[in-house]
Amino acid sequence: MEFKDINNLDKAQEKSHPELIRLGLGILFVVVIMLYAIFRSGEGGSLYIVAAAVIGAYMAMNIGANDVANNVGPAVGSHAMTLGGALIIAAVFEAAGAIIAGGEVVGTIRSGIIDGNRIPDKQTFIWLMMAALLASALWLNAATAVGAPVSTTHSIVGAVMGAGIAAAGMDIVAWGKMGQIAASWVISPVLGGLAAAGLLFLIKRTITYQTDKVLAARTMVPWLMALMGWSFATYILLKGVGKVVTVSTPTAMVVGLALAVAVFFLVRPVLNRHAQTMRNDKAAVNDLFTWPLIFAAALLSFAHGSNDVANAVGPLAAIVDMASSTTDTIGKNAPVPLWVMMIGALGLSVGLALYGPKLIRTVGSEITELDKTRAYCIAMSATLTVIVASEMGLPVSSTHIAVGAVFGVGFLREYLKNRYDRLVDEIKATHPESDQAALDEFLQQFKNASVEDKGKMLRELKERVKTSQDPAHFSKPERKNLKKVYKRELVKRSQLMRIAAAWVITVPASALLAALVFFMMRATLGA
Prior knowledge:
This protein has helices at 3-40, 46-66, 69-77, 83-101, 122-145, 152-168, 175-208, 213-240, 249-275, 282-287, 290-308, 310-324, 338-366, 372-392, 398-429, 436-448, 451-467, 476-482, 493-525; strands at residues 105-107, 333-335. By secondary structure, it is mainly α. It has one domain. Strands 1-2 form a two-stranded antiparallel ribbon.
């Protein structure tokens, strides 16, 4: 072996060390959970409880590694916070959401996907839940490995469906419900993308495209912060503490409105003072969204922890409940012991810390370039879309909404950039080829003008060209050629295709895995 080969091998080993450390810490966490489950499970059925605790811990880690990126990724990608700070905030608030508002009971049959009455006995039910939990975790693990943010809810729903079919046939599935979930593959990202793009366009028209950006920010930002206060208060009441305190949508909206009014009158005087020393540029406007993004990351993480921890602890709680029960009756709901909820909360934090950075970078910087204004629009679209969709009864996925919002922001940027390039080429086509100084002066004025002034300048220019007989102007064919600008792509198509493919196959892939795991369990354990 040559010296350079040895050197390359040493470098490869150095790169593998962090991966081995992460793998070792992940295994250590699962082993600790296993030992604790062995220690506290003295009742009958303890073997199932221990196995389920291990699989539940593994599932919670994968949720933390994959799903949490949607909450903090945009804030990290826009440099509103560092990756380390985001990991700490997300870990704390994910765990807090799970423990404080995760709920004391969960549904044993996830989202009514299968009919529990068709499951023949308690033993089959336990195998079904264990197979679903393990298959869902394996699929999330695979998606994280390839850098694809997927819906953990869709993963566990598909797994429950697959294991249910393996246990009792096709008739066990509520196919109408599955149709709604399939519809959400399209509905969620489209709604998220449209909401984020609409908000970003509003901010550009009212602030960043204005000549006096400071005055525009003083006028608009308090309203934007009030909207954020309303949406997040409503979202937290509906999705963050809904399992602890039942709050209707109208009540949540009214409480959110009260907070919005308070935020408006708190932000306006602070912003007016800050505006006295604020620069009149886009970077200064961007900086106004730093602290709102940090709060958004924390609140979204809290809401996510309270909701999606059920994807890990729901099947686990159902297994614990059935394994400890002396009857064969399969209830619709199962109580969640504190130690089960702690497994979910700790697993979310551990998975996020060990493997979360990869998906955070994907969402935050590898789809499109984000600044703080764009990240604000993404966070807002996530809350607004969920609120509106919940009120309308539309099936949506928070993961698909958030990632769809990132794509929506990117595609709007592409459209605006390319439209601006076309306008610049039209301007070039209306100036004499020899008069570069006049062209440069006009382009600088055009760049600094407001939206209304840009339109006025273009109309005057076109009118002047129509009446001009100057042969120094470019001919019509030459102007057409100038309009053929290179289309800039600001969204990575490879990421779009990979993530879309992962979304489409999540339910069938997790279903197939769950069916295979169920058959293996039944063959190994005997039935």
